[in-house]
Amino acid sequence: MSATLCGPDSAATVASHRCRVVEHSWVNRRYRHIRLEADAPIARITKPGQFYQLRCPATETEQPFLLRPMSVYGAGPEDGRIEFLYNVTGVGTRAMASLPVDGHMEIVGPLGNTFTFRPDFKRILVVARGVGLATMAPLIQQAADAGVAITAVMSARTREDLMEQEFLRGANAQVHSVFDADGSSSVDAVEVLMRNLIGQQRPDAVYTCGSHRLLMLLQRVLADYPEVVGEVAMEQRMACGMGVCLSCVRLFDCDGDKHFLRVCREGPVFSIREVVGEVEFG
Ligand SMILES: Cc1cc2nc3c(=O)[nH]c(=O)nc-3n(C[C@H](O)[C@H](O)[C@H](O)COP(=O)(O)OP(=O)(O)OC[C@H]3O[C@@H](n4cnc5c(N)ncnc54)[C@H](O)[C@@H]3O)c2cc1C
């Protein structure tokens, strides 16, 4: 089973925080960046891969009911600062997009586990698509701070959707961009790229987020490289975000033992090798 499961003390730091909006702007036509200042020093207790549950504000026409899970995109440098990068898609994120600077928002967390990362790693390979970029950005910073070499494969619909600067945030990385628009993001093309990169560079760890297709592809490729750590940050519809409602369970295969695990509590980071892609009934 994944070594990154929540420890018993990880829940001890979970709390509800009232935050002030410090910055809030469009990154491109679909994504917004929000920087919050919390009422407590949460940056230092927030780790890459973890997420918060956000209480999106009510608007004149809409009242988001459940809290919305959002990966931490950045934490610090001041102790109370926390950032999210989000796609404006539905009721909650539309309402959130209307929050003014100096407005307030409640967030609950930090929730979930973190990636397996060791500062003595020589190189990591990060494979991200869409909103997965937000989840992986703190891991990129962690690797850059530790002097670990980074290879990044970024997948997007078009070049305009890529958000390379937002992903790397100044970190030095070898970047390979693939797009739906020119077919370079197809499973066949990306599999060739992955096999070349992993075969030639032999990264210590491969991480992914944002695409089930990429996840399954990496599971196939990593079967040939048992020594390489492989982890995925999973995105799953969830309600409570704290392990109570069980709405986010997924099936995992841990050395032949099948387990339903909660993405919010045992995850969201899991071993790529343990994800069960298709569930067969009967
Ligand atoms: C661990 C985790 C981290 C995430 N990190 C990010 C991030 O960094 N940036 C980002 O843009 N999005 C992220 N998402 C997805 C984000 O939670 C949804 O886009 C958001 O909840 C949509 O809310 P909505 O009200 O705008 O959409 P609606 O479709 O109106 O939402 C209706 C309901 O469905 C749920 N829901 C809808 N889409 C998703 C989804 N993809 N995953 C989980 N629940 C969903 C909502 O929480 C809500 O309860 C993350 C999801 C998870 C589980």
Provide a quick synopsis of the model.
By secondary structure, the protein is an alpha/beta fold. The protein has helices spanning 91-97, 132-145, 164-168, 187-201, 212-222, and strands at residues 15-26, 31-38, 51-55, 68-71, 74-75, 81-87, 104-111, 123-129, 149-156, 174-179, 205-209, 229-233, 249-254, 257-262, 269-271. The protein folds into two domains: 10-111, Translation factors (Elongation Factor Tu (Ef-tu), domain 3, Beta Barrel); 115-233, Nucleotide-binding domain of ferredoxin-NADP reductase (FNR) module (Rossmann fold), CATH 3.40.50.
What does this structure look like?
- The structure is a single chain.
- This protein has 282 residues and is an alpha/beta fold.
- It has 2 domains: 102 residues, Elongation Factor Tu (Ef-tu), domain 3 (Beta Barrel), CATH 2.40.30; 119 residues, Rossmann fold (3-Layer(aba) Sandwich).
- The chain has a 7-stranded antiparallel β-sheet.
- Helix 4 packs across helix 5.
- 40% of the residues are buried.
- The structure holds flavin-adenine dinucleotide.
- Flavin-adenine dinucleotide binds next to strand 4, strand 6, helix 1 and helix 2.
Topology:
Blueprint (H helix, E strand, L loop, with lengths): L14 E12 L4 E8 L12 E5 L12 E4 L2 E2 L5 E7 L3 H7 L6 E8 L11 E7 L2 H14 L3 E8 L7 H5 L5 E6 L7 H15 L3 E5 L2 H11 L6 E5 L15 E6 L2 E6 L6 E3 L11
Parallel strand pairs: 8-9, 8-11, 9-10, 11-12
Antiparallel strand pairs: 1-2, 1-7, 2-6, 3-4, 3-7, 5-6, 12-15, 13-14
Helix pairs in contact: 4-5
The third-level CATH topology of the largest domain is: Rossmann fold
Low-confidence stretches: 1-9
Find the structural class using helix and strand composition. Answer: alpha/beta
Could you name the CATH homologous superfamily of the largest domain?
Nucleotide-binding domain of ferredoxin-NADP reductase (FNR) module
Strand order of the largest sheet: 4-3-7-1-2-6-5
CATH class of the largest domain equals: Alpha Beta
Total E-strand runs: 15
The radius of gyration is 18 Å
Tell me the series of helices and strands, N- to C-terminal: EEEEEEHEEHEHEHEHEEEE
**Relative strand content:** 25-35%
Going by CATH, the architecture of the largest domain would be 3-Layer(aba) Sandwich
